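User: Teach me something about this protein's shape.
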Amino acid sequence: MRTALPVLFIVLAGSAGIFATGRAADDKKATPVRPALTVTTARPETARLPLTLAANGNVAAWQEAVIGSESNGLRLQEVRVNVGDVVKKGQVLAVFDPATVNADLAQADAAVQEAEANAAAAAADAKRALALRSSGALSEQQITQYLATERTANARVASSKAARDQQRLRLKYAQVVAPDSGIISARNATVGAVAGVGTELFRMIRQGRLEWRAEVTAAELPRLRPGLKAVIRTPAGGSVTGTVRTVAPTVDGQSRVALVYVDLPPALDANAPLKAGMFAGGRFALGESGALTLPQQAIVVRDGFAYVFRLNPDGRVSQVKVTTGRRLGERIEVVGGIQADTPVVTSGAGFLNDGDLVRNVAAAPAPVAKR
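Assistant: First, the predicted structure itself:
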């Protein structure tokens, strides 16, 4: 009897252990699995998105006029404009001292009067000689000499008038005027300097027109044509809209890029957002096309790749890698990875992992604006 008691105790203890283990397993099976997160879903929507082409380039003057001196040996008396001034066509920019030119012009006027007097006397002599031709008082040689003297006197009148016109032109050139409307971009004129013919005094951006010289590759060049719109980003964070004027007919042999010339709005203000010499980026508007889009919050970026979480019929989600494209406001184009009828998690997607169980609820309706 002493040997039977330990055996009975072991059997009873083993039975109790088996009963306890089976009860714990039953309790575990009975406990429901709770969803990891409450989410909302959406399906991709078709939308029309703009087609754009990004490029970079320099901002330059459409045409920069060089305004030089046309007077030789005159002292610069007055400079009336400075860099940044907006000028109109014909406006006086600088004035040379005209004293020397005025003296030469007075001398030329006197020479014209003298030549006209000599021409009048020669004309009278020639007229009398012709009147005496029939009487024989003068020989044909003498008559011819009088006529030649008249023509010579008339030629001297024309020569002296040409010399006077030259002096008048010098007096006109004593004032440096703007050849066109625009903005002064450089100034080399100094009061008191004696400038020679052709000396550069000013540079002017004609009509204040600027252009964006965008650099594009040879493959992108066929997509661009005159008349397309372009949006150029300014250094201050704004944007300026321009129009393609022309596309370069050649491609640079070293850089393998071509220039596209985009006309910008006139920059006749010191606070203009773009100035000549700036480097700016922008985009060409090439039209629009259809695309599948998702809300931005549905796209999750992990390890440098874009993913979405597809909702399966069993309430669990699957992480799917997608390829994104263009962006329009709060929506992003999905180029590949999912179909148009795929339900995708929107709110809460950033907190999920592959295989998580979720509870899907309807998205709250957008608030109606009060009138």
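Now, about its shape. Residues 98-173 form a domain with the Helix Hairpins fold (CATH 1.10.287.470). The radius of gyration is 46 Å. If you'd like, I can walk through any region in more detail.
User: That's plenty for now, thanks!
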